[in-house]
Every structure is written in structure tokens, then in C-alpha cells.
Amino acid sequence: MFRSLLTAAAVAALMAGTAHAQDVKTAEGLRDKALRDYLAWDITEDLTTNIGPRLVGSPAMERAKDWGAAKFKALGFTNIKVEEFAKPSWTRGEESAELVGPYPMKLAIVGLGRTLPTPAGGIEADVALFKTYADMIAAPDGALKGKIVVITQPMVRAQDGAGYGVAGISRRSGPVEAAKRGAAALLIRSISTSDSTVPHTGVTANGEGVVTIPAAALGVPEAEQLERLAAKGPLRIKLKLASTFDPKDVAWNISGEIKGSEKPDEVIVIGGHLDSWDVGTGALDDATGVAITTAAAKLIGDLPKHPKRTIRVVMFGSEESGGSAEAYLDAHKAEVPKIVLAGESDSGADRIYALKLPAGGGAHPLAGTAAGVLAPLKIYLDREPSTHGGADIAGLESAGVPSISLEQDASRYFDYHHTMDDTLNKVDPVQLAQNVAAWASFIYLVADSDIDFRALKAAVPAAASH
Amino acid sequence: MFRSLLTAAAVAALMAGTAHAQDVKTAEGLRDKALRDYLAWDITEDLTTNIGPRLVGSPAMERAKDWGAAKFKALGFTNIKVEEFAKPSWTRGEESAELVGPYPMKLAIVGLGRTLPTPAGGIEADVALFKTYADMIAAPDGALKGKIVVITQPMVRAQDGAGYGVAGISRRSGPVEAAKRGAAALLIRSISTSDSTVPHTGVTANGEGVVTIPAAALGVPEAEQLERLAAKGPLRIKLKLASTFDPKDVAWNISGEIKGSEKPDEVIVIGGHLDSWDVGTGALDDATGVAITTAAAKLIGDLPKHPKRTIRVVMFGSEESGGSAEAYLDAHKAEVPKIVLAGESDSGADRIYALKLPAGGGAHPLAGTAAGVLAPLKIYLDREPSTHGGADIAGLESAGVPSISLEQDASRYFDYHHTMDDTLNKVDPVQLAQNVAAWASFIYLVADSDIDFRALKAAVPAAASH
Predict the structure, then answer these.
(1) What is the pLDDT of residue A460?
(2) B258: closest CA among B246, B244, B250, B270?
(3) Contact yes or no for A344/A271 (Cβ under 8 A)
(4) Least enclosed by CB within 10 Å: which of A212, A264, A402, A436?
């Protein structure tokens, strides 16, 4: 009998004079439906099981491309596009490493993504071990010459994943910097928050004009074992890495739309990336991002009336090796002024705990409305603006497209990231559904509004911006 | 100023008229000293770092044997013995598996311990997948013929590790039973409580008169992936396993003693096993068992006066592949009547939660004394008697030697058991020290007593025994 009572969030929205009460009700309905909806799980299960690992350039990635287009079609998306772009590919071969002295022991390793191979017979050399990347950089002249350099710097666990950037420099820049210093090869402690032997890959600098050396990541216990052994005496390691490179390969960005009912040329771009590393099945990275954004848009598309603006879901085709962001911008330059917002889901499938709006967005009444709709999901509106919404939308961001971040709890993400353990059994269906609930309800609110984040940003006084 | 007050446990012991108050005080002192003692950690670190993995028959096992004798000597143990026995050895070679269809994907596997190798080119075959061992046994005639059989039965997590016996039948008997039914090879879901891709090895039946097939264990996500894929269509797998066998090899049981001050010919045998699988560094299985019992005995040996009876620590030399228990009994048959008690630590390094005494032991006043000394460690006296104190003391038990069990929390033990992840970083030093505290204080009480567990067992009415 109290059906006509408005929720607190609806009242707040009305008072703010922005979102219609009906919009809030619809957003709340999407949110609550999403919490019990299994579409994101089914998409994740389908992609990881029926396609499996899908490295750029692999036959699996080609199957994934067809899968993506077919998925959009099956779910009722329209204006489905498969946009091809040039992307040199790298394919892993056999890899192994062993401690040779003080005693023989196999070491769990994985070659860094796009690493150079070793000669076929491998590289055997004495070890120069450094406990931090900074220690390696500060090493005296000649200390690395001809050595297999080992960096054992650990990664710090943090809810927002902030430890990744700090520790990741060993992987991103380590091989080039070690090469400059004459090293023969580099082994890094995996960029990992786990205590597992399963090593973490991830892209390293390579390509035209880059002078580098073969490089791989060690399992965490192996790195710690080497650190202990190095304190007792000299070490010697043998490393074999094989790989091939195809400079003429291609990749694809695949998209589908929920067409806007009133302003279809105004577009919100959301998505995740379809490619994965070749180890594991890319469940958390990033089948779930594809699944979350696709399921959220599908729920919106199933409404009796589409929101005003178009929602486009993009399955980006080369995040891990880089390239989708630039390719997407290249293909959509003319359209950039009409892309009103971009967002990406690419930090696993654990719960969202915060929303970051574009700079200036917090001042708009829609922010309060969104905060009210998201609060029951235990998501707060962060006072900090979104600065980097994701690697695949970085191109759009660089061209001025406003972005949001729905911040996922990354506390456990880097236990599995880029490993054979990035598999479906690490996905929690309840947290996955919470992600969909947040994306569906928030994106709906923006899509059915006239909010202009560019104008809001322009209105931010310089001193108040971050 | 209350220093002369007795503790509750001491009062209980006095009232029971058994242990001298001085004994209780000494046991409590050992217990409290052990909680802050790092010897067990140092032994574990030393063995896992400086020796590493130590499979029976490996050069590392020979180094471990010397390490064990040297460790006893360095710690002041006496009557140090290295007892050699015949033990055929098995050495792992290169191993790999891949899904061939419906699409190619590498599978994380490890050959079961002592498995047959495949032909050098591997075995490629269609898959017959069963969700339980019972389903395989119940399969119709011919269903396994020429197939690679996959069993995906999971293991249940339990504090007392009870899930291991149930699930472990796939590993212990699976290859022989699948061979009887004409299978070409067997892959089992790892006998594991984790969700990790790291596969678990462990011994399977093989040797003279055993008809079996090549067999390996899959990582957990891989087993689940195959289960999902098998529900959708046929699977094909290629498996390669290499290994060599040396029927003439040897192993060693190594022991050292804290000589009894009054009845040195009455012996308490405690220990763990020195050998490990070749994957990981055998930290939880069983460097910590060796370390806990050695450190406990060392603490007792450091007392101003040794207890009445002799405490002998045995580092058993072939638990994983079997043989140390029989060898130890063979070498000590004449001494069996004077071995008053045996105990083994071989379930990792997590906290002890219960003490099981030999049948009839609970009726003796010493049980109450021990319960009082152990209670602050959060250890209760189990009403059930110890029936199987450990694989390496099973030979002594079969000859009538009473045994105890200090039950370790095995909730997380089977996450790492027999894997590359059985490494030092899984050992919690605080829980490790709690183990030493329990062993040192309890073994001291028995060693300085006249308790005769054989007589107590003989006094148990048949109807009351278990």
C-alpha cells in the first residue's frame, strides 16, 4: 500500500531537479535485477571455456572475434562492427629455467610478453641479484656485464592496485635498463601479490629501435629462494626462452550498440578487452570486463524504452600487447565530439567500491542521484575525479572524451593477473553481479540525461582541479 | 611475590599424584621457551634453501642425508646413526599435456610419483571423463578402451585432512583400475583443496606385478575446464610423460638421541621425513616435521638434567615413495619392546589442536597433566585414541609400539601438498613454534615418567576400545 512512496534516492534526485523520478526508479530496477542476473557469469563461462586463452595473433583470438560479434547479435545489440587494425603479434614457444649452482633445481618461470628469445641453446650465466629495481639502476659500472640479472622486488597488496605501478617497472623497463648495463638476460620476481609459484607474464618493451634482452618472471617462492641463496654464495642459472614474431598481423575492436531513443548520435562507450595472455583463460583479465559491460548494456536494452543516448559496448582487441586504444581513436576521430563518456571494466570481477566521475562531474545534481542509487551496493562517490578510466579508452581520453572509473576491489586481482591461474574458478558470481548492477544503473542514468561532462570540466576553476 | 604459587596444571598433576610438580614446571618452561624459539624455523629454512627438493635417489637426497647427520651433531645429539636400506628410485623427466580438441590449449600437469612413462612421442587419444572415481569403476565394458581417462572428483577441505583419503583413491588405485578397463592413460584432478593451477603429485601403485598405465594430475582449473568442455562435446588430449627407474637404489633413516638420565634403554621415537617430492622444496612436507621434532628434542636436551628416558629423533628417508617405516622396523626389531612410544609430525606446520594418546592412555593421571600443560596452546585431549601416528612409524605400530598423534590443523595443508608451491613462504613461524611447544612439553612429560602405554592398553576392556 505504500507503492507510491519514493525512495530516498528518488527524492534526492527530484530535489536536485535533474533526473526524473522515473529515471531513478528505472536505475534502481536495473540495479536490483542485475544482482540476480546470471548473464555476465554465462558470458564469462562461455568465453573462457569455449574460446580459452586468446593471445593477439592466435587462432583463438580469431575465434574470439567471431564469438564477440555473434554474442552481440544474439543479445540483440545493433550496429555491430568488427574493426580491424594492424598489430604485430608475438607467440610464445618452449620456456625453461634452472638453477645450475649451488645445486640443480628447476625454476618456475614465464617469459615476459613480447620478450626476445634466447639463443636455442639457452643462456647460462652467473647471477647478479638485486632486491629492488633501484638497486639495479644504482649498481656500479660493469656489475651486470654478462650476467643473468635477478630483481626480487615484491609488490604491495592494495585495494586500488596501486602496488602494480610501483613494482611493475621491473617488468616494463627492467629488460631495457639491464641491457644498457650489459646484462645477458633478466629474471624478475613476478609482479604479484600472491605467495604462489605460478609466474606472472605481462608486456615488456620491445620492437623497432628498442635494445633489450631476453626476460622472464619467476614464481614468488623461487625469487625468495634465490634471494636467500644469493646471501650465502654465488648463483648460476640457465634460461631458455623461445618465441616468434609476426610483424604483419592484425587485431580487431568489436562493438555493438543499444541505440538511443532520442539522441542516438550521442554515444557512451563502455567495454573491456577481449584479448588475453596465452596463460590461463583470461577470466579476470578480462572476460569479466567484457561480460560486465555487455550484460549491463543488455539489461538496459531490454527496457521498454531505450534511454535517450546510445550505449556502445566495445570488446577491445589488443589491450595486453597494446594498440586497441590507439586503433579505436584512429577509427573514431570524427565521432569524438559526440562521445559523451567512456568507461572500461578491466580489474577483475571483485566488487566495485567507488565511482569516480570526470573532473567537475561531482558538482552536477546527477552525481548525487547516482550516489544514492549506488549506495545500497556499498559504492561511494569518490571526491577524486577519474583520470585514467582504462588502457583501452586512453586514446579517447587523450582526445578529450570524459571518462569514469567504477573502481573494483583489486586486493586479490594481482594474485592471479597474467597467470595460468587466471581462470573461471577465481570469479565470484555474487561480486560479478554487483559490478553489473553498478554499471547498468549508473550508465542508464547518464544515458537518459543531458549531462555534459565536457562543459562541467571546463567550468572547474583551475585551482580546484587535480 | 607470588612466585611460589603453583599453576593450575601443576596443582592438577599433584592431586593426581603422578607427575612431580617439578616436571610440570619444566614442561611449562619448555612450552613457553619454545613459543619464542626460532630453531625449528632455522632448520626448515636451512633444509629447504640449502638442500632444496630431495627425492629419493636424487643427489639432493644424498646431500640431505649428510645434512641430517651434521645437523644432529651440531645440535648436540648423540648416538647418531645413518641406516641405509634398499629403495628403488624413480626420476621424473620432461612432462607435458595439451588439449588437442575442441581447440589446442596447454594443460598444467604433473606425473604421479613413480608413474610409468608414455612412449617418447606421447599418447594422443579421445577422452572418457568421469566426475567421480565411482563413476569410472561403474562404467560399462569397453567405455575406457584406448581412451585417456579423466577423473575430476574434487577433494573436500577438512581440519583433520579427512578429505584426502576419500579423494586420494583416484591417485592410488586409479591407474591400475583404469588399466584393467583398457585405458591408455589416466589424468586425475589434483588431490587438492586449492583452486590453483599448480598440480599435485604423489605416489601411485607401480612395481613388480603391477599392471598400470601412465598417469598424471591436472591443475584444478584445468580439470574444471575439461569437465565443462566434456559436457559440450568430445575431447582429445595428448600426454607425454618421461621418467627413469633405478631398481638398485638406496635410502637412509637418520637418527640422533637425547640420552635418558635414568632409563636410557627406554626409548621414545619421534620424527618426520627428510625426503620430499621433486616439486617444491618439501617445506610443509616435511621439512617442518623434521624441524619441529628436532627442535623439541634439542630444547629438552638443553635442560640441566635430561629426562629419565631416551628421546630419539628419526629423519625418515623414504616416506613419499614408501619404505622407511618397514626399513626402520627391520633395523630395530630387537629393540621394539623398549620403544615406549612413537610419534611423527607430518601434516605441515599449522597449529596443533588436539592430542591423541594410545588406547587406554586417557585413564592415566599423566593425561590430565598433559592436558593442563597443553591447554594454553589451545590443544585439547581427544577422547579418541591415536590409531595411526604417521606413515613412517606404521612399522613400529604394527609391531606393537604405542603411538601418539599431535593433530595439526590440515585445513590449508592440502592446498600445497606435493606441489611446486610447497615452499618456505607457506610456513607460519608462529604456528610452527606452537608445534614445537606442544612436542617439547608433552614428550618431556612422557620421557621423565614411568608411564607404560602397553600396559594401559592391555587394561582397556574390549567393549570400551575403539
Answers:
(1) 85
(2) B270
(3) yes
(4) A264
Give a yes or no: residue A2 inside a domain: no
- Which of B48, B52, B420 is closest, CB to CB, to A197? B420
How do beta strands B105-107 and B78-86 pair? unpaired
Question: How far is it, in rounded angstroms, from Cα A237 to Cα A107?
Answer: 9
Task: Please tell me whether residues A361 and A324 are part of one structural domain.
Answer: yes
The CA distance from B291 to A288, in Å, is 44
Q: DSSP class of residue A186?
A: E
Pick from A195, A221, A426: CB nearest B195: A426
The answer on A233 and A175 residing in a single domain is yes
Pair (B238, B276) in one structural domain? no
Task: State whether B222 and B364 are in the same domain.
Answer: no
Q: Phi/psi at A419 (nearest 5 deg)?
A: -130, 170
Question: What pTM was computed for the model?
Answer: 0.93
B1 assigned to some structural domain: no
* B222 assigned to active site: no
Give the CA-trace dihedral at A285, A289, A292, A298, to 10 degrees: -130
Assign residue B167 the CATH number of its domain.
3.50.30.30
Residue ending a domain, among A243, A266, A289, is: A243
When pLDDT is averaged across residues A210-229 and rounded to a whole number, the result is 98
Q: Which among B48, B197, B225 is the nearest to A198, CB-wise?
A: B197
In a domain, residue B310? The reply is yes
Cβ of A197 within 8 Å of Cβ of B280? The answer is yes
Which range of residues forms the domain containing residue A356? 8-87+249-464
Question: A92: which chain B residues are within 8 Å (Cβ-Cβ)?
Answer: none
B231 touches chain A (CB under 8 A): no
Q: Are residues B52 and A103, on separate chains, in Cβ contact within 8 Å?
A: yes
Closest CA to B422 of A218, A414, A222: A222
Residues B404, B366, single domain; the answer is yes
Domain boundary residue among B243, B262, B291?
B243
Nearest of A212, A236, A207 to residue A98 by alpha carbon: A236
User: Alpha-carbon distance B295 to B441, whole Å?
Assistant: 12
Helix (H) or strand (E) holding B78: strand B78-86
In A38-118 the beta strands, taken as DSSP E runs, fall at 78-86, 89-101, 105-107, 109-111
Q: Tell me whether residue B3 is in a domain.
A: no
Q: Show the cell assigned to B190.
A: 589434483
**Which segments of A235-385 are extended strands (E)?**
236-246, 250-258, 263-273, 309-316, 339-344, 352-356, 380-381
The pLDDT-based confidence of B460 (bands split at 50, 70, 90) is: confident
Portion 308-337 of B in contact with A at CB < 8 A: none
For residue B4, pLDDT over 60 is answered with no
- Give residue-wise pLDDT tens across range A10-35: 444 444 445 688 999 999 999 999 99
Q: How confident is the model at residue B207 (pLDDT cuts 50, 70, 90)?
A: confident
Q: For residue A367, what is the domain's CATH number?
A: 3.40.630.10
CB contact B49 to A (< 8 Å): yes
Is the same domain home to B110 and B62? no
pLDDT in tens, A66-94: 999 999 999 999 999 999 999 999 999 99
Number of domains in chain B: 2
B456 vs B214: CA distance, rounded Å:
48
Do A65 and A100 sit in the same domain of this protein?
Answer: no
Strands A215-218 and A185-189: parallel
Tell me if chain A has a CB within 8 Å of the CB of B242: no
Residue A153 above 80 pLDDT? yes
CB pairs under 8 A between A and B: 92
Contact A12, A369 (CB under 8 A): yes
Alpha helices in B92-213 (DSSP H): 133-137, 163-167, 169-172, 174-180
Residue B18 pLDDT: 53
Gap from B40 CA to chain A (nearest CA, Å):
17
Determine the average pLDDT of the residues in A243-270: 98
